[in-house]
Specification:
The complex is a heterodimer of chains A (about 250) and B (about 300).
Chain A lengths: L1 E10 L2 E11 L4 E5 L6 H8 L7 E6 L2 E2 L5 H6 L2 E3 L12 H8 L8 H6 L2 H20 L15 H14 L4 E5 L7 H16 L3 E5 L3 H7 L2 E6 L2 E6 L1 H6 L1 H8 L7
Parallel strand pairs in A: 3-8, 3-9, 6-7, 7-8
Antiparallel strand pairs in A: 1-2, 1-4, 4-5, 9-10
Chain B lengths: L1 H18 L3 H27 L6 H19 L3 H22 L6 H20 L1 H4 L5 E2 L5 E2 L2 E2 L3 H23 L2 H11 L1 H6 L4 H27 L1 E2 L6 H14 L6 H19 L2 H18 L4 H12 L1
Classes of the chains: A alpha/beta (about 250), B mainly alpha (about 300).
Chain lengths: ~250, ~300
């Protein structure tokens, strides 16, 4: 289980996160919502090692993640995506995903130099796995194209495939639906559900309330660097403090 | 088709001393071979990780001095000096890689330039060891069993083998998960970390390999010219390597080969054709034209043209 305890992040005099605590139930889809500047992405960065928290700790199955490099955290099964589209731009869609399979292979320097037959077998297995992953996100027809040449929505799918290739146990998605059309959001939502059904825990930050309420098992609301509410989507929508602090007066219709 | 071209090329390379009788021409080819190793080595860093080393001549020079000193002071044979040269250059590469752990881009460039500057000063001023600016004459030619490889033809084959091995090493490396990790670092470092690529580990690894390969080139150079002086650390060498890699096509396997041959042969051809001022002018114009018309390099452009024709 991924657990955040009293996580605090301060930038100089500005407090981005103030003693945030929550736990992500294994096998669930948990969403973190909150107005701009609530500290959602900061929390993601602190959990995944891109930012060193000023206080508190993050644990996974009881082992501390705080202070580890992002790559070491990824090796423990916690993999993230980014708010701004983040692909390997000049590589093809296939090679993007193949690169994402880094942790699925093990050949070291000397094994590579020796070039044994086992290495070729590993490479073939990786290529097949990459092809499967590209198919999973529905981009098989784009496989040989450079990632940067794809339309925005498809680049986000590449990003998702790259993260999934690392075989996460916990997948953190930072606004997976941002900038997507309604139809694309439906595709992403169904992909996220399928990922969850395969046993991956999903933690996501998202602004689209329809998407959040539609796919989440649990919703965590951040405001001003604190958790102000946590619960099932229906309970969150009815939560008076959430309506006041975040959704605003007109939110009853959302 | 591709196989036939490859076989023809291999046959041409293997028989080259037979039909290239002119000793001066063979000398140019040998130098092109040594520079190919250097360009391959720089390309691992510049082409695949995207980090520009402007101190690469230092690794070349360390290799040259190590091999020369071991032969002259301790009487070590070339076959021990060569791996020692690569190893010591590799250790220097490791130090640079560790130092540069946290720095990228312009700061990596500065670290490598400073390193080359320091090493060059050591070679000039540690007179007891390096003989200072006078250099070290009389580096022996390598011996292979009863034969001395002092003829240009013999040395040509030695360099050819070294080029082939260096190329094979680069090819294996960049086509593996290690190569993909290096490219991931070049393309998007934050994303690379997020999928578990320990970028600093791979940056150190490739700096060591690149430096060792440059050291190997240095050793081959020392035992070929039979003389080593602080000139091996000249910035010009580094710049030449960068030009070769960029013009040939950085981040491709064939780019450094094409670049190294072109930019070893071209200055020599110009030297025969024109006076010194015109040489420099022609060289400069050609470089500007290359960067302007083939910004990604010769090899990627050719590959794209071939792909279009299909």
């Amino acid at each position: 289980m991924l657990a955040v305890e009293n996580l605090a992040v301060r930038f100089g005099g500005v407090t981005a996160l103030e003693r945030v605590s929550f736990a992500v139930r294994p096998g669930s889809i948990t969403s973190v919502i909150g107005p701009n500047g609530a500290g959602k992405t900061t929390a993601f960065n602190a959990i995944t090692g891109y930012l060193r928290p000023t206080g508190g700790r993050v644990t996974y199955d009881g082992a501390a993640l705080t202070g580890l490099r992002p790559s070491a955290i990824a090796r423990r099964g916690i993999v993230r995506t980014f708010q701004k589209t983040s692909v390997f731009p000049t590589l093809s869609v296939h090679d993007n995903v193949l690169t994402g399979l880094h942790l699925r292979s093990s050949a070291g320097f000397f094994a590579v130099l020796a070039g044994r037959r086992r290495l070729a077998a590993e490479e073939r297995a990786l290529a097949a796995e990459a092809a499967d992953m590209v198919e999973f996100v529905g981009l098989t027809h784009r496989r040989p194209e450079a990632a940067s040449a794809l339309p925005y929505g498809e680049q986000r799918l590449v990003e998702l495939a790259v993260a999934l290739a690392a075989r996460p146990r916990v997948l953190l998605l930072d606004e997976p639906g941002a900038g997507m059309t309604g139809a694309e959001k439906l595709v992403v939502s169904s992909l996220i559900r399928r990922v969850r059904d395969q046993g991956v825990t999903v933690l996501l930050v998202e602004h689209d309330m329809r998407m959040v309420m539609g796919i989440s098992d649990t919703v965590i609301v951040l405001n001003g660097g604190r958790v102000i509410a946590e619960g099932a989507p229906a309970a969150i929508q009815a939560h008076p403090e959430v309506i006041r602090a975040y959704l605003g007066a007109s939110a009853g219709s959302a | 088709m591709k196989r036939a071209v490859g076989a023809l090329g291999a046959a041409a390379l293997l028989t080259l001393p037979l039909w290239l009788a002119n000793a001066y021409h063979l000398h140019v080819v040998i130098m092109a071979g040594i520079f190919t190793i250097l360009a391959l080595s720089l390309n691992l860093l510049l082409g695949y990780t995207g980090q520009l080393s402007l101190g690469h001549a230092a690794f070349f020079g360390i290799g040259a001095y190590t091999s020369a000193l071991l032969a002259l002071k301790l009487g070590w044979p070339f076959w021990l000096g060569l791996p020692s040269a690569a190893a010591l250059a590799g250790v220097a590469g490791w130090a640079i890689g560790r130092l540069a752990l946290k720095v990228r881009g312009a700061y990596f460039v500065l670290v490598t330039i400073s390193f080359a500057g320091v090493i060059s000063l050591v070679s000039l001023n540690w007179i007891e060891l390096t003989n200072g600016p006078l250099g070290l004459p009389g580096v022996p030619a390598p011996e292979l069993g009863p034969w001395s490889l002092r003829t240009k033809t013999a040395y040509y084959y030695l360099v050819l083998v070294a080029v082939a091995l260096s190329y094979a090493l680069c090819r294996r490396l960049v086509r593996s998960r290690i190569g993909r990790a290096l490219v991931a670092l070049r393309e998007n470092e934050a994303l690379a970390e997020s999928i578990g690529v320990d970028v600093t580990h791979y940056l150190v690894l490739v700096t060591v390999v690149s430096a060792a390969m440059a050291g190997l080139g240095g050793s081959l150079y020392a035992h070929y010219t039979r003389f080593v002086s602080p000139e091996v650390f000249l910035f010009t060498y580094t710049v030449t390597m960068v030009i070769m890699v960029v013009a040939g096509g950085k981040g491709t396997l064939a780019g450094p080969l094409v670049g190294a041959v072109l930019f070893t042969v071209l200055p020599e051809a110009l030297r025969a054709a024109a006076s010194w001022q015109w040489q420099m002018l022609a060289y400069g114009v050609l470089l500007v034209a290359l960067v302007f018309f083939l910004p990604r390099g010769i090899v990627p452009r050719l590959a794209a043209a071939l792909a279009d024709r299909r």
